[in-house]
Amino acid sequence: MIYNIPGVGELKLTTLILDLNGTLTVKGIIPPGVKERLAQLKTLGYRVLFFTGNTRNNADTIASELGIEWILAETGEAKRDEALKLTPSTCVTIGNGLIDLELMKTVRLRIVTLQAEGVHTQTLLNSDIVVPTILDAFDVLIDPAILVATLRK
Question: With a threshold of 0.90, does the pTM exceed it?
Answer without folding.
Answer: yes
